[in-house]
């Protein structure tokens, strides 16, 4: 067996080697290991007492329309050619269209019918004088689609409407409208029936204002009230603050 020997070179340069000691105390466990959680004692959760909310009962549209004085205001007749049913004309003149269904679609008639319907509602509650808040509350209660649907269903129970008017209702019921908050709240069926009533009102506004007046009177709105007579009835009354 050969024996190897190593002799340092006389020209070799000594190298200093530094070393360090780890003086930090290390934990005796692995901090990354999953911990064993202590079991949570079973706590008896007592159910909270049931809270009974008061049920809101809104008055029906028929009751709201009756919130007027028992004595109706007598309209004043005027000598003018611009009259119908013996009363002064108050609606703006409609454009002369012989066949509205051939010119306008159902959505257009419902658009103008919605305006006419609200105008009747505002005039209905004009007397006696109320605060603006009361005006808005009453008008809003009868112009919403749920109220219009209730009035239409009551109207369909008798033979007041002609075949042509019922056909207009069916035409207006098929209006394709976007999904709105009102339609989502009331439902598509109620919303479509309300739109059909507005379509009929818009149709009669363009074709037969006299028939429109009778229709609105049948729905429960006051008609033919003259501003002149209303001022006489209100003479001496204190204004609402």
TrEMBL record:
InterPro entries: RNase_III_dom (IPR000999), RNase_III_sf (IPR036389). Residues 108-208 form the RNase III domain. PANTHER family: MINI-RIBONUCLEASE 3 (PTHR34276). This is RNase III domain-containing protein. It comes from Hibiscus sabdariffa (roselle).
């Amino acid at each position: 067996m050969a024996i190897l020997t190593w002799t340092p070179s006389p020209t070799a340069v000594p190298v200093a080697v530094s070393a360090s000691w780890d003086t930090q105390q290390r934990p005796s466990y692995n901090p990354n290991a999953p911990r064993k959680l202590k079991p949570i004692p079973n706590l008896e959760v007592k159910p909270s007492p049931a809270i009974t909310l008061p049920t809101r009962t809104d008055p029906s549209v028929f009751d709201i329309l009756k919130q007027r004085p028992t004595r109706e205001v007598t309209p004043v007749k005027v000598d003018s050619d611009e009259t119908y049913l013996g009363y002064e004309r108050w609606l703006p003149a409609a454009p002369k269209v012989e066949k509205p269904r051939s010119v306008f679609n159902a959505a257009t008639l419902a658009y103008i019918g919605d305006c006419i319907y609200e105008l009747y509602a505002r005039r209905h509650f004009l007397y006696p004088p109320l605060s603006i808040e009361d005006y808005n509350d009453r008008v809003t209660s009868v112009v919403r689609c749920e109220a219009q649907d209730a009035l239409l269903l009551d109207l369909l129970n008798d033979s007041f409407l002609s075949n042509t008017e019922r056909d207009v209702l069916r035409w207006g019921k098929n209006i394709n409208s976007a999904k709105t908050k009102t339609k989502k709240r009331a439902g598509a069926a109620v919303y479509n029936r309300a739109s059909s009533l507005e379509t009929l009102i818009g149709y009669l506004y363009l074709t037969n204002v006299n028939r429109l007046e009778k229709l609105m009177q049948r729905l429960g709105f006051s008609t033919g009230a003259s501003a002149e007579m209303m001022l006489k009835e209100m003479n001496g009354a204190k204004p609402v603050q």
